[in-house]
Design a protein that fits this description.
The chain is α/β, with parallel strands linked by helices. The chain is built from six helices and nine strands, in the order αββαβαβββββααβα.
Length: 181
């Protein structure tokens, strides 16, 4: 994306919106300091193991933490702010969500009512004690809100943003480049 890595866009937003940034990277890159991060740590073999490694680097004095996929680089400060405000108002776990616009069908079944579903995005916000407990008691999940929910935490939602796309295919990068100012 120009002269910047996908990670750089996420780091800029995180650094502007939070009091500290921990970057979790593949183990072979952990020796490289990230200029906008307070700490760079080696990730694990799963998403959850990587988040646990990042959590270990968060100061004990922290009360809240956001977990964000660097693969979502579009800077949307207003969405990050909604997550932070919900935490400040007392939420245990906050996830940004967007409506599902495609028709949904079970693989071997029927079409389901898409109005019942939303797509979950990041950053996901947590009271840090809740996220630490979730990672101590649960093993693995596709996102951290699921882990927290598995140990009894209440998950709140805020409006996400359809532009907050996750780059998982090469063609997603071309879309992200058009969305980033």
């Amino acid at each position: 994306m120009g002269e910047r890595r996908v990670l750089d866009w996420s780091l800029v937003t995180a650094a502007e919106m939070t009091a500290g940034v921990v970057v979790v990277v593949p183990p072979e890159l952990a020796h490289r300091a990230e200029p906008l991060a307070d700490a760079t740590v080696a990730g694990g073999s799963t998403r959850s193991a990587s988040v646990r490694a990042g959590l270990a680097a968060v100061p004990a004095t922290a009360t809240h933490v956001l977990v964000h996929d660097a693969a979502r680089p579009v800077p949307l400060a207003d969405m990050w702010q909604r997550v932070l405000e919900a935490l400040a108002e007392g939420a245990e776990v906050v996830v940004p969500v967007v409506a599902v616009t495609d028709t949904l069908r079970e693989r071997e079944g029927r079409t389901v009512d898409r109005a019942r579903f939303v797509a979950v995005q990041t950053p996901q916000g947590f009271r840090i004690d809740v996220l630490r407990r979730a990672h101590e008691q649960a093993t693995d999940a596709t996102d951290d809100a699921s882990l927290a929910e598995a140990v009894g935490a209440k998950v709140s939602t805020v409006d996400g943003d359809p532009r907050n796309l996750k780059i998982t295919e090469p063609w997603h990068l071309a879309i992200a480049e058009r969305l980033i100012p």
